[in-house]
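#struct-pred
JK: can someone run the complex with flavin-adenine dinucleotide? inputs below
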Amino acid sequence: MIKEIQLRITLKEEEQPDILVLKSAIKLAIDRKDITGVKILRKSIDARKPKIIFNYKVAVYIKEPVPETSKYKFDYKDVSKAKPIHIIGFGPAGMYAALRCIELGFKPIVLERGKNVRDRRRDLKAINQDHFVNEDSNYCFGEGGAGTYSDGKLYTRSLKRGDVRRIFENLVYHGSTNQILVDAHPHIGTNKLPKVVQNIRETILKYGGEIHFETRVTDFIIKNNKIRALQLKNDEELTVEKVILATGHSARDIFYLLNKKRIAIEAKSFAMGVRVEHPQHIIDSIQYHCSSDRHELLPAASYGLVEQVRDRGVYSFCMCPGGFIVPAATANGEVVVNGMSPSKRNNLYANSGIVVEINADSDLPKYEQFGALKGLEYQKNLERLAFTSGGRTQVAPAQRLTDFVKGKLSNTLNDTSYQPGLKSAPLHSLLPKFIGGRLRKGFEAFGRKMKGYYTEEANIVGVESRTSSPISIPRNEQLQHPQISNLFPCGEGGGYAGGIVSAAMDGERCAEAATNNL
Ligand code: FAD
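RT: done, structure tokens with the ligand placed:
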């Protein structure tokens, strides 16, 4: 017999090795010897009160063996001689489109502008140390896309859009830990992601797919409303049948290309702001109600904050406990910050994007001349502003949180995890009033919600501008572009995803659509 039950375990109890069996036996009023195994289905931490509780949902196996297998099978077959599907971009959307093509019996041919995970590392070092951005290989471009050297949080609000569990199981199949299957807030970590991405590449190659790195697509050759060929950066032309476009939200050249060729794109609402960085112990002490270091069984604490300021939401985005702020620009002449953390989340800082919603229809009147590209141009201007005010390198403009809210330049800044370094700048006056004013009110409100959050020990760092795509690429019910029948806009760049898991799910959907009726 199998019984699913909820268990509440205190911090002290959590230290006991057999606690789940013991508590299950008590709760079910059975002899513990009759329990053959306890499988954790879900685990979360309730830290709302000083007495911290681990909430478990478990399946208790009574007098029967615990099954080993998962209901998910990944049935990859040899597709080396099968019909090809071309996929542009090898981020989560492109990777999962390729894997799904193989399951469906089609040969994915992936074209990726960046380098493989290992060679990409050198370019990340160059951004951090030499302030040089390789425009094809950086924190957003390269094998695994923006998802490789990311934080690897796997939360998604897109539960209705696909089978989240299938993606998690596939990540485990490719080397991620089982822990992501049970944690309420699953996280892989930037140190573990490259191996998972490399394993995905190896599966694709093993079953006959192709992946071409350092192969940027520069043009579409179109005839009779169909892409006949892709032009590559070396001027080679590649004849194609179906194209999945999974180039992400930072591939501005692709948006410009579509616009130039009059292939419809649309301005979309998005969000921008800054990244705030606190010493992790401050966030721990607020969230875990402790005055000294957090208990060793507790992970670095996180938070999620939202406040309505006048007519717009101000909210935390991509919060990285025990993490680093990273330079996520994709071109020289711009500064963009983002965050990531290792699997153990054991760095000394907690960082989070704090952003303001920008409504593409009403908030950008001065940018109307750019049509569908208005949000992108606004975003670009802010990134250039960050570049010049940081001193024209990857050094980012920053201010103490309290000085930003009070509207005064910081004489000194706090230490930071951001490797290229920070420069004190008056972000309160540099940021557009629309964003800066709302952020200031938002931070004050966050200080009231989390006592100790509003502190001079925190820095804000500019700018957090790539939260989501400022552009969407339309598609019909068959996921085809309405004008170009063999083009399948996919993932975050199309406006169909907002993170690793939703991009992966969209990749699978596009593979299904592109292979339909072939
Ligand atoms: P991308 O990952 O952007 O991939 C697009 C790919 O297309 C890139 O590899 C690019 O090189 C390639 N490409 C672009 N143009 C061309 C071209 N012309 N020719 C050939 N190839 C091209 N999300 C989460 O869910 N959790 C997190 O914790 C998280 N942390 C993040 C931390 C950082 C630092 C960053 C930068 C992002 C983070 N994200 C996180 C966001 C997440 O990475 C993206 O949502 C996700 O990667 C989007 O997937 P995608 O496949 O749609 O696009």
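RT: quick notes.
Residues 252 and 269 are 16 Å apart (CA to CA).
The mean pLDDT is 96.
JK: thanks, will look after standup
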